[in-house]
Amino acid sequence: MYTVKKTIEISASHSLKLSYPSKCCDLHGHNWIISVYCRSMNLNADGMVVDFTHIKTLVKEKLDHKNLNEILPFNSTAENLAKWICDQIPQCYKVEVQESEGNLAIYEKDQ
């Protein structure tokens, strides 16, 4: 089994829709640290699980310097964002989304 990990930093804003009062309901931004894990039993014709550049391009083009509420059809929590990213990338099985120091959400597909 081959595994690759790509870590990307993006800047993006969002506001959360919560069932309780919170300052996170106001528009604010983060420098998100996103780690994408992909694996495969076999390498592709180029000798890779997936090209690191393809992962970076997909995440940066869709999310970097954006208001996440304007482009994502769900409440833009770190947990929801981790699952969405995982669903976008072939061979991806796990994503970590750190929205600030000490706040990390992890999504991992069931095996």
TrEMBL record:
Q: Report the EC code(s) recorded for this entry.
A: 4.-.-.-
Q: Which domain of life is it from?
A: Bacteria
Entry keyword set: Lyase, Metal-binding, Queuosine biosynthesis, Zinc
Give the enzyme's main class according to its UniProt record, as a single word: lyase
The answer, when asked if Metal-binding is one of the entry's keywords, is yes
State the needed cofactors, names only.
Zn(2+)
- Pathway membership: Purine metabolism; 7-cyano-7-deazaguanine biosynthesis
The cofactor note reads:
Binds 1 zinc ion per subunit.
Q: Which Pfam families match?
A: PTPS (PF01242)
Catalytically driven reaction(s): 7,8-dihydroneopterin 3'-triphosphate + H2O = 6-carboxy-5,6,7,8-tetrahydropterin + triphosphate + acetaldehyde + 2 H(+)
Give the family per the record.
Belongs to the PTPS family. QueD subfamily.
What protein is this chain from? Answer: 6-carboxy-5,6,7,8-tetrahydropterin synthase
